[in-house]
Amino acid sequence: MKRKALILSPLVLLVGGFIIMKILFSFKAEKPKRNSQITPRIVATSVVSLGEVPAKLTTYGTLASSQPGTLISEVSGTLQAGDIAFQPAQSFKRGDLLLKVDNRQINLELNSTKSDLLTALSSLMPEIKVSSPKIFQVWQQYFDSINFDEPIGELPTTQDQRLKALLARYNIFKLYFAVQNLEIRASKHFFYAPFNGSIISTQLRDGSTAAPGSRLGELINLEKLEVEIQVPAKDIGWIHEGSPVILEPEENGIQWIGHIERIGNIIDERSQSVLAYIKLDDTGDVNPLAGVFVKADIEARMIPDAIKVSRRAVYEESYVFLINGGVFEKRPVGVAFDEGDYYIINRGLTASDTLVTELLQGVSAGMPARSRNAFESKE
């Protein structure tokens, strides 16, 4: 009997413990079920509005003169100072006398030839008075107009064959053209500035002796400055001669206005680019300096029915995300132009689409989404 009791005691205890545990669990409150609904992703958006968008091409270049010049002497003689100091970095204005060559000898030769012409005319005048009294006064006035300190006037014209013969017999034509030739030679003794500019370098200074062919110095025209740029061959079709350009030099806050002056027609094989040249139109109150490095923003041709979108909102240059019906929609698009930080899209979007404008990670089409603009307006 005692043995049976010993065997049944653990079994009774085990069954009793199980019953008590069931009773205790029955008193425990049931946990509420979790809500399985996914919270919508709140993102920045904008409403698509299509229109004409100007493509902007950005490149860089250096400001330089489109008209550099070299002073070369065509006559010989001693160089003499002009109106300004003939030295590097010296600025000058149009019409300033830069240098001159001693012209005493050429002046003597010129005046001697004028004297010969006056002598020939004085011998001819009596015969003109007798043979052609009607035109005598014309030739008398021409004779009186010849001055040793002024350029010779144009020789009177005539259709009278007898008068032409007289003029040829007295060497009037020959002496007249000799005077003109000497006046041209005399003018080459003076070097006047043809534009506003600056002296880059000098090979000879005043006091030196020049010979025909001597290089005197290098000049640049500061009235005609241009920027040489390289345009990728793939983008050359977007610009044209006359395209407006905004130029920004290294100085902050300065902008210059220009336009595409000319475009090359040869592609550089190494860089696969085409040279183009920008002419400055307006520099305001700031005088541009040759050699300044500038950024050029070229307004290329207009793209119709397009929108400019931040680069971060376009994925793999082929699709964007929209919010449509409270969920993300993946939409293929066509990129018409790459502006660097922006893409210009002209295919795939329609007006009033809600475009996601921020960079998304870990999302896919069909996930719930809400526009941040709409969310903030309800708060």
Q: Topology, pairings included?
A:
Blueprint: H1 2-26, E1 41-43, E2 45-47, E3 51-65, E4 68-72, E5 77-81, E6 91-92, E7 97-101, H2 104-131, H3 136-145, H4 161-169, H5 172-187, E8 190-192, E9 197-202, E10 209-210, E11 215-221, E12 225-232, E13 244-249, E14 256-268, E15 273-282, E16 293-310, E17 319-324, E18 327-332, E19 334-338, E20 342-347, E21 354-356, E22 369-371, H6 372-378
Parallel strand pairs: 1-22
Antiparallel strand pairs: 2-21, 3-12, 3-16, 4-11, 5-7, 5-10, 6-9, 7-8, 9-11, 12-15, 13-14, 13-16, 14-15, 16-20, 17-18, 19-20
Helix pairs in contact: 2-3, 2-5
Outline: elongated
Broad structural category: alpha+beta
The quaternary state of the protein chains shown equals single chain
Low-confidence stretches: none
Q: Which strands sit side by side, in order, in the main sheet? A: 3-12-15-14-13-16
How many beta-strand runs? 22
The level of helicity is 25-40%
Largest sheet: 6 strands, antiparallel, barrel
* Mean pLDDT reading: 86
Number of helices: 6
The end-to-end distance, rounded to whole angstroms, is 81 Å
Order of helices and strands: HEEEEEEEHHHHEEEEEEEEEEEEEEEH
Q: How much of the residues is beta strand, in percent?
A: 35-45%
Please tell me how large the radius of gyration is.
46 Å
